Amino acid sequence: xxxxxxxxxxxxxxxxxxxxxxxxxxxxxxxxxxxxxxxxxxxxxxxxxxxxxxxxxxxxxxxxxxxxxxxxxxxxxxxxxxxxxxxxxxxxxxxxxxxxxxxxxxxxxxxxxxxxxxxxxxxxxxxxxxxxxxxxxxxxxxxxxxxxxxxxxxxxxxxxxxxxxxxxxxxxxxxxxxxxxxxxxxxxxxxxxxxxxxxxxxxxxxxxxxxxxxxxxxxxxxxxxxxxxxxxxxxxxxxxxxxxxxxxxxxxxxxxxxxxxxxxxxxxxxxxxxxxxxxxxxxxxxxxxxxxxxxxxxxxxxxxxxxxxxxxxxxxxxxxxxxxxxxxxxxxxxxxxxxxxxxxxxxxxxxxxxxxxxxxxxxxxxxxxxxxxxxxxxxxxxxxxxxxxxxx
Length: 392
Ligand code: ADP
Description:
Layout: E1 5-10, E2 15-20, E3 29-34, E4 42-46, E5 52-56, H1 62-71, E6 80-85, E7 96-97, H2 100-108, H3 117-130, E8 136-140, H4 150-153, H5 159-165, H6 174-188, E9 194-200, E10 204-210, E11 213-217, H7 240-248, H8 252-261, H9 264-269, H10 275-283, H11 287-307, E12 316-320, H12 321-326, H13 328-336, H14 347-352, E13 359-360, E14 367-370, H15 375-390
Parallel strand pairs: 1-6, 6-8, 9-12, 12-14
Antiparallel strand pairs: 1-2, 2-3, 3-4, 4-5, 7-8, 9-10, 10-11, 13-14
Helix pairs in contact: 1-3, 10-11, 11-13
The structure holds adenosine-5'-diphosphate.
Adenosine-5'-diphosphate is lined by residues 201-203, 230, 274-276, 279, 321-323, 326-327.
């Protein structure tokens, strides 16, 4: 299939789109419809000349937004639609062609991702309406981690909670970890390496990838487990919920809200969840900002050290996501916290590898790579591959 793939990432009030051509020399069209359902709904994006546009879509719902997106594709006709779906449970170990049965399975998994899967389904329903003739493919954030062995995915909880309720570790950001580890294989010249990947954006997670397969990852049943994130706490004592309920009388809803939206870099610093702002505040002497960066980096290093147990051999570490791609300071602090790995940073290469550049930043020891993630490219590639297999 030579036609471009339209990649859709649908939230409850937003649709992110990218029209991904099958060759990298053609420009990608991309944009975001946001505040859907409200009077100030709008569509923002970039055209093929690289010019940005903003279009008011007052009161638009998902279907109306998709119709507006269609008019922004500059006459280019997608050959398929690839949907980013957050949770595929244990059923989906790879991408799947969307039909009624797949929709029902995504619905059945909604209890595990109550904020995301229903919104993703809204996107599928609207897309099936607007692009009725096109094949649609679901690409799951959890699928790449379905190769985790039981020792990595089971919690030490009563077996019935796993068997009857699916309570286990699933992991997320799978598309990103899959993309950057495959890219590290290609760039390093190692046929199939042992990589620790660190996706550091607003959400953050690490993964251990061996011979192209995820062997362990830092996120669990939900995307709250693991690293310190923009506004999410990451790991806390599992006794915290009971403590807050008993001692402070907090409701479950309040605890959930604080751990998901009021913690992480924002909670620690008391300032912001934005790493750029934290770096300048710390430089200006803000103690909370400095502490937030310190805890953030230490916890990444600690997670990477723990995940190294999942690899028979460590070939290197890959940094990606907005922070991983753009913050030499964070990379340096993480690497400095791992002297026992034998990591040696090339300071000049570290400083100059930012702004979407791919590059190697070590001076010996395990390889250290900065690889800008490309989740949309990977979703398009998986969509293409699945449809080609279907026609083989
Ligand atoms: P999302 O997970 O929402 O896709 P991104 O991957 O875009 O988020 O990452 C957002 C994070 O990247 C923010 O904390 C932002 O401050 C950080 N970031 C972006 N550019 C820089 C930079 N030059 N230096 C430090 N942090 C940066």
